[in-house]
Predict the 3D structure of the following.
Amino acid sequence: MRRALVVVVIWLLAVPPVDAADSVGLLDPATGIWYLRDESGQVTGFFYGNPGDVPFVGDWNCDGLDTPGLYRQSDGFVYLRNSNTQGPADIRFFFGNPGDFPLAGDFDNDGCDTVSIYRQSEARIYIINALGTNDGGLGAADFSYIFGNPGDKPFTGDFDGDGVDTVGLHRESTGFVYFRQTHTQGTADAEFFYGDPGDRFVAGDWGVVDGIDTPAIFRPSNATFFFRYTNTQGIADGLLAWGSPTWLPVAGSYGPLPGTGPDVVCPVFPADNIWNAKVESLPVHSQSADYVSRIGAFDSVHADFGSGVWPEGSTSPIGIPYVPVGPAQPDVAVEFTSWPGESDPGPYPIPPDAPVEGGPSATGDRHVIVVDVADCVLYELYRSFPNGDGTWRAANGARYDLRSNALRPAGWTSADAAGLPMYAGLVRYDEVASGVIRHAIRFTAPSTQSTYVWPARHEASAITDPAYPPMGQRFRLRASFDTSGLSAQARVIAEAMKTYGLILADNGSPWYISGAPDERWDNDVLHELDVIGGSDFEAVDVSSLMVDPDSGRVP
């Protein structure tokens, strides 16, 4: 891949930062969302392509920056875009046969990338040094040659620094990587052991910037990139925990990206929304002691999310799941069976296999959360059941524009008892892995008062005693609580409870904080939060932040 050789920095978890000319990216094949990470660690996201397309990147217009390409294996068409933004293909053409694997690179050292293919059934590489015209075909390859064995997995890079990209192969049966330094048939010029079966390979100029590409693998089992800085056998020199196990990796030089934060495609409400407001400097509520006492001053925080299932042997993931959907997901009918008058009417873009809180056989709340990242709209359902024909039924449902501060009508419930969005308050693994949570966290209390405070819209109690906390009440971990003894990820959550606090959203167990299930969670680390007791919290008076009672906007 063509790149400008500049000294920049890529953020790698668990190792010191390193110089790099290239960086990595990921495509979520289920939604068509690309996530590209520049050399400074900024991430940007956009839609491009259809579910199932095979991603790659290259410098198609010779400007020194790599941008997306897609190969649609079902019809053999290539779709190239000349900017890292959402939009239609700038170039599209037919090349190869359905099922071929795309290769991108500068194969003749002319400063421009083109698309070639590896036909795994033949172990043959077909090289072409020009791009096709829109809707046309490329014709025959400039040349082809055999390299490797049928079934080998290809990737491309400039493995010797001569300006010409050639082909590398990973053979899962042996775990070996094979490089050819010229586009001629023959045995490998270099070979070494690296990676495991199932790893997905890319190559780039990481480590010391020297114009030589070396391999990196994306391991689906733990959603982590492992970088090797030389073309030799050895352990990884750097790693980056990022993405999701089903995502597909790419590597290139993207230039500076705008960076859209941890929620790459859509914000979780505007930056000036109450969910995203810091509360560490706000006054303590006058009834703080009563509220803490009624919730449980001697009860402990519990992270009600994690990896695996609970109870053991069940099909119930630990936490409240959500699923992102793209434009390919059709809207489906939803019947509301309990509170239709307080539900936003359908249809909703809910997949037939959307994850249900508690699992398919759950008898509890059975929340379903869908994030439409095409339109940045959040959909949440309570007591949700699929009908078997693609439609759903639920007790009630709520829709939120993630780019708006609008609240639900006063008095309306939602999938949560407080009439609030649930997704906004979930602890998510990727944000914790990034080192910071920038929003309030949802939590539950055993009993609440029969009223609600801004930004909540609904109550769920018959208790009139003002010593009980109302729905929507904000709390924070006391600034004096020492988090230094916690592991890194537990400390991120605890510090967020100091800075952004907790929002009381439902009746339930005391001080249970909500998050999304993820197999990357370390449950033992999450249990470190058990050392935080109810008496370590104080209620916060957020009334000074309310601009409009029907809006979540803060000054």
User: Anything to note?
Assistant: The mean pLDDT is 90. The CA atoms of residues 77 and 201 lie 23 Å apart. The chain has two domains: 8-252, 274-545.
